[in-house]
Design brief:
Layout (H helix, E strand, L loop, with lengths): L8 E4 L2 E4 L10 H5 L2 E3 L2 E6 L4 E5 L1 H15 L7 H15 L5 E8 L16 E8 L10 E9 L16 H13 L4 E5 L5 E4 L3 E6 L2 E5 L9 H12 L4 E4 L11 E6 L3 E8 L2 E2 L7 H14 L10 E5 L4
Parallel strand pairs: 8-9, 8-15, 12-13
Antiparallel strand pairs: 1-2, 3-6, 4-5, 4-6, 5-17, 6-7, 9-10, 11-12, 11-14, 14-15, 15-16
The chain binds 4'-deoxy-4'-aminopyridoxal-5'-phosphate.
Length: 313
């Protein structure tokens, strides 16, 4: 569990406050109805250099602002201001571990109606926690296809990280864990493979890297986009397309990809072994390289990393 004591500051109500002071009323519209959008950004601690390397912060902030645009709500912070706040927060908290940042834009009004029409702009807060692996990355996961379908884009826009929509993820995750699995795979409303409960999915079939297309009611993951780029750079063929459920049972490799899970490989799906049940060749290549990239150790991909020096405050 996160230990907020490790990090004394949270950005809340337009200022940096002590973590215990960042509190909202129980009547807050976002708490009652999930009228909020959020992001999730990882920062990797480099002990030697005493810096944190944030992964693709600009892309995360773009997605957050796009989500607010999808909701059509007023918001007073610019991309530049959000980035400055996040960098300042990291510096103030002086982490000595890998971190996870949670920017959160929300309906702070206390009105009873679940609506986005309030003239009050969405409020903004961001906190950070220490975070290691979210799912194991060194052993293969045992996963199942969920009986819950992924939310349809025209019900709750699936390409936005909308707080209320995450009840969908929670239902799928709870069902999987209750049945003894590590994680769930969602099918979309059409019955095609969509993604994991909070991560995108990739399969490898006959040397081709396959992932559901962005129109398949998935979240357009930044890890997903990064891996497609890396695979292109490595000349690994990539297909973004409709994926049938039965392809899950005939692929040679499968893995999840997301900020939280990073890359976590799958050993079995619905009790059927994936490939030989070991970490596959293409998965290994991508996973090993990706973990180097995340820590800022690959010059070719350094543009994705924002280094925050922790000495200067
Ligand atoms: N799908 C869902 C539903 C998610 O919540 C996440 C985590 N943000 C992802 C996919 C992966 O997206 P990203 O790589 O941008 O973290």
């Amino acid at each position: 569990m996160a230990n907020l004591k490790n990090f004394p500051y949270i950005f809340f109500n337009n200022q940096f406050v002590k973590a215990e002071e960042a509190k909202v009323s129980v009547m807050t519209n976002a708490l009652q109805y999930g009228t909020a959008v959020f992001g999730g950004i990882r920062g990797y601690f480099n002990q030697k250099g005493n810096f944190i390397s944030l992964f693709r912060i600009d892309d995360h902030l773009n997605r957050l602002l796009q989500a607010l645009n999808i909701l059509g709500v007023p918001f007073n912070y610019t991309h530049r201001q959000l980035k400055e706040i996040i960098i300042k927060l990291v510096k103030k908290n002086r982490p000595k571990t890998d971190i996870y940042l949670r920017p959160f834009a929300y309906a702070a009004n206390l009105g009873l109606t679940p609506t986005l029409n309030s003239n009050e702009p969405f409020a903004f807060t961001v906190y950070m926690i220490p975070l290691g692996d979210y799912l194991p990355t060194h052993k293969g996961l045992s996963v199942c296809v969920s009986s819950w379908r992924r939310i349809a884009d025209n019900a709750i826009p699936s390409r936005a990280k909308i707080a209320g929509g995450y009840i969908n993820s929670a239902l799928a995750k709870a069902e999987a864990v209750n049945q003894g699995f590590d994680e769930a795979i969602f099918l979309n409303q059409e019955g095609h493979v969509a993604e994991g409960s909070a991560e995108n999915i990739f399969l490898v079939k006959n040397g081709v890297l396959i992932t559901p297309a962005v129109s398949e009611e998935i979240l357009e993951g930044i890890t997903r986009r990064s891996l497609i780029q890396i695979a292109n750079d490595l000349n690994i063929p990539v297909e973004e397309r409709v994926v049938d459920r039965s392809e899950l049972y005939v692929c040679q490799e499968a893995f999840f990809a997301g900020t939280g899970v990073q890359i976590a490989w799958i050993a079995s799906i619905d009790k059927r072994q994936v490939g030989n049940g070991q970490r596959g060749k293409i998965t290994s290549r991508l996973q090993d390289l990706y973990f180097q990239i995340l820590r800022g150790n690959e010059p070719r991909y350094e543009k994705w990393c924002t280094k925050i020096c922790l000495k200067l405050i």
